[in-house]
Amino acid sequence: MSIAARAPRGALSPDLFDVSPESIAAHLEDAAHYPGGHADAVARPRTETDVAAVLADGRSVLAVGAQSSLTGGATPSGAIVLSTARLTAIETPVDGLVKVGAGVVLATLLEDLSRHGVDFPPVPTFLGATVGGIVATNAAGAATFKYGTTREWIDGLTVVFAGGDVIDIRRGDHILDDSWTFVIDGPAGSRVVPVPTYVMPDVVKRSAGYHAAPGMDLVDLFIGAEGTLGIITAAVLRLQAARAGLCYALVPLVDEPRALALVAELRDASRETWRSGDAAGIDVAAIEHMDGRSLQILAEDGADRKYEVTWPASAGLLLLIQLELPLLTQEQAYEQISAALDEDAPDTPLARFCRVLDRHGVLDDTELALPGDRRRAEQLLGVREAVPAGVNARVGRAKRDIDARIAKTAADMVVPFEQFGEMMDIYRAGFARRGLDVATWGHVSDGNVHPNVLPRSYEDVEAGKAAILEFGVEVARLGGCPLAEHGVGRHPVKQALLRQLYGETGIDQMRAVKRALDPQGQLAPGVLFS
């Protein structure tokens, strides 16, 4: 069965292209500090017709949102940068769904949804990202432990192809059959799209090339494709009712084994709550991890003072736990905390959580942001965000002051949680053998953290790349995925990890998908494939 594409809709904007040096310069680098960005013009479409006009120009096109990519995937390599900044429509939510433009910023989306009493829970940690960006990379984040990745919450997409025609697809309408092909007919002709036959790692996070699986939905082909198959102009998102109460706990621990013991107990308790529906059960959505080097960065940058947090000198790492609670007042929360260790304490989720912390010897040192205390929640979240911000600033300074070839050098790998400790041992040994300075943070509840090299020279960058390629083999051996949530982009190490994962045959199968939908290689050149 073929799928019908259509002509683009909307008026052509008179101010579509901007060739001013200032505008171009503002779009030449993403968060990865990937070198060599260059472009001829910036296009800012408002309509599908605008997007089609940009593509009709014939030059290569890179669609970007917030340019928060950590892989160089939003750094242009020439021709036209297509900014989604004007594709910002948000329709009124209906029946648990909402259609939004690709350029909608996540913070804006969540604020708008809150007025309707609904939520889009799988948002990644960085709320400055755009909807188009998170779809393009199948973004994930802290709350993937409970809510999964972006993929599970996308009900439909509007995609403009390189030929200028448009497809509207809804989940469930177009399912892969035994031919392992999708056929798309439209004004630009017929396209037969062969789906790859490689087996993707079976882990909670995966942003590793084109999605492929028996019986897959056509929607999933474009999620995580990093803008190489078509330009996403809008997405239909699945929603849930707004969460009643969120509590954040910043927990210092002496060492990693004790931290993993706490995480394991909270993971198990939460899964049992979801299974049983126990109203008094612990319900953790996310657990973040910041290692000892990350704590040093926080202190060096004054983040502990800025966000008014403290931790014992004995702390070897911090956990940031996101606990979901029934609706309660701060007064009720304080009462439950103060009575949690009493023999006749009320049986509530917060009291159970406190007792778990107490069993692990960390209750007294835990900093809490109780439901409704927005200021304190922002402070604790600010601590978490200050770690990657501090690392990125150091990479930027090293690039400026030491060697212009320096770029962000980091791993983004995931393993089953049961293998997490072994993965961390592999990381430490591999980096230590090369004499590298590394800070590691991320989403321990998913088995996914991000070791980042703090480069003192370009040689450190090269040594870090070698280490990451070594880790990719080991992570695959542990049943994990070496490309978890940031995608592949233009980074040569990420592209090498993709080749390691699927082999040259798998890369050739992805190239066949690309040729079917973008035969001239116009979209996102250099992304995924060199």
TrEMBL record:
Q: Tell me which UniProt keywords the record has, alphabetically.
A: FAD, Flavoprotein, Oxidoreductase, Transit peptide
List, in alphabetical order, the GO biological process terms annotated in this UniProt record: lactate catabolic process
- The EC number(s) attached to this protein equal 1.1.2.4
Recorded source organism is: Luteitalea pratensis
- What is this protein's record name? D-lactate dehydrogenase (cytochrome)
Named cofactor requirement(s): FAD
- Name all FAD-binding PCMH-type domain ranges: 35-242
Q: What class of enzyme is it?
A: oxidoreductase
Q: Which family does it belong to?
A: Belongs to the FAD-binding oxidoreductase/transferase type 4 family.
